[in-house]
Amino acid sequence: MQLKRVVITGLGAITPLGNDVKTFWDALEAGTSGCDMITHFDTTHFKTKFACEVKDFDITKYMDRKEARRLDLFAQFGMAAATQAMENSGLEVGKNVDADRAGVIWGSGIGGIHTFQEEVTGYSKGTGVPRFNPFFIPKMIVDIVSGHISIKYGLRGPNFVTVSACASSTNAIIDSFNYIRLGKADVIVSGGSEAAIIEAGVGGFNAMKALSERNDSPKTASRPFDKTRDGFVMGEGGVSLVLEELEHAKARGAKIYGEIIGGGMSADAHHMTAPHPEGLGAANVMKNALSDAEIDPSEIDYVNVHGTSTPLGDPQELKAITTVFGDHAYNMNISSTKSMTGHLLGAAGAIEALACIMALERQVVPPTINFETPDEEIDQKLNLTLNKAQKREINVVLSNTFGFGGHNASIIMRRYTNE
Length: 419
Description:
It is a single chain. This protein is of the alpha/beta class. It has helices spanning 21-30, 65-68, 73-89, 113-124, 136-140, 144-153, 168-181, 199-207, 246-251, 280-293, 313-325, 338-341, 348-362, and strands at 6-14, 36-37, 50-51, 102-107, 159-162, 187-194, 237-245, 258-267, 302-304, 333-335, 364-365, 390-391, 396-403, 407-414. A ten-stranded mixed beta sheet has the order 5-4-6-7-1-8-14-13-9-10, sandwiched between helices. It has a two-stranded antiparallel sheet with strand order 2-3. Helix 10 (280-293) packs across helix 11. The longest helix is centred in the N-terminal third of the chain and has 17 residues, at 73-89.
């Protein structure tokens, strides 16, 4: 069976660095932190008081207020990003795409935690009589985003949401890629969204000691690879990519941002939250992605790492990179854009895929900011793109995301050429 080629023809972004793709990329390339003190709730009694929140988000640009009240914030982020991506793609259902051949595959790690907290808190403060919002369940369930996107555009193809913690939206993109290359669909709106900067989200991750507590300097708190890193910084937002079969895209004269050529998945099978100490699962997922793409490791120019700024995770991922790439690891650029966006949890794969696509477009590697102190556990000969973006020829990029539970997912994208 001849597999079809899959390209990216639409982009949309609601992020801590800006609420459109251009603003996001300009801030990323400039090395701007999206972090600041939390405004969503009173953090007086919380160990962590900062996060990478989305700023100036106005859902009424995308739907009316009555409809917006029926969506949790994570679904609003997703709808806004998907709307941008569909407009950017130039697709018009029934005109240049068959609704039965177009689907939605989304990723989110947690779903409607805002709604869950609000409803349960309201009940606990009441008289015991259950008075829940009739939209409680449909607002909260994680699969509702793909449902809303399909309803808005009338897309009747494959429709579901993947959940694999912080690898969720990479899994969604891989599934979308597979459905199209197997001929099951012509177009899939993919991506991810998350909105967990709320008491239950921050308190839960604080209890695990997973978050940075650098409250005196929030903009420098996310510091992957730095010896003084003390945990990740929560982020929120939504990013959408329109994936399309190559000949379908060419036939309608679509702008092509890049091509997806491979995806890999693996499990650590080791621990509920800690990565494998030797980076075994991380190495395997990159090998699987390279094998799926049928390319040699030496063809990779840039790796956007999971790089969460945690003491355990960063060294293990870099060990895995040197295991997989050998001496070529020193020729590649490596960076963690979480140093600027924070960690968008289930949407991390989507926002980092967008960073990779824009790196291919602009031929610029976005930096890892906030690096000051070398860590003897990290090979300092690796080019970690520290503190400043670097221009270079970029033809093939790899993006890693890893999730609690030991889920690992990697995708490989290539600069599009009409060959």
